[in-house]
Amino acid sequence: MKRYAVKRDDKEKILSILNYDEDKKEFSIDIPKDVTEREAPFMMSLFVKRGISAYRCRLEHEVGQGTDCSKQQTEYWADIAGK
User: Fold this and answer.
1) What angle do CA 56, 62, 66 make, to 5 degrees?
2) What whole-number distance in Å separates Cα of residue 44 and Cα of residue 60?
3) What pLDDT does residue 78 have?
4) 51, 45, 57: which is closest to 19 by C-alpha?
5) What is the pTM of this model?
6) Nearest-5° angle of CA 10, CA 80, CA 17?
7) If residue 78 lies in a helix (H) or strand (E), which one and from where to where?
8) How far apart are CA 80 and CA 60, in angstroms?
9) Measured distance CA(40)–CA(37) in Å, rounded
10) Per-residue pLDDT tens for 16-54?
11) How far apart are CA 83 and CA 79, in angstroms?
12) Domain residues for 31?
């Protein structure tokens, strides 16, 4: 499992954790409850705005070989971006 903390350059506060499980080919985003929509990076602010603190996706293809998420997941991203 690979884990990455997302922070602003000028801050030490962790805004989210990106996880990637190489065996299962799944990634997830975990956002702490105290992160505000304004602090979060744009794509993650969409989750915060809707009250979503965790997002999971199983990769349909190998990383670097086209679309990472299924069509359903891509439509979900478009759906939350539009609301």
Assistant:
1) 90
2) 22
3) 46
4) 57
5) 0.62
6) 40
7) helix 71-81
8) 21
9) 5
10) 998 988 888 888 889 998 999 998 888 888 888 888 888
11) 7
12) 2-81
Q: How many domains does the chain have?
A: 1
* pLDDT value, residue 40: 87
The structure tokens listed for 12 are 């030490």
DSSP calls for 42-77: HHHHHHHHTT--EEEEE-SS-TTSS-SS-HHHHHHH
d(CA 17, CA 57): 14
Task: Give the per-residue pLDDT at 23.
Answer: 87
Asked if residues 37 and 48 have their Cβ atoms less than 8 Å apart, the reply is yes
- 31 and 44 in contact (C-beta within 8 Å)? yes
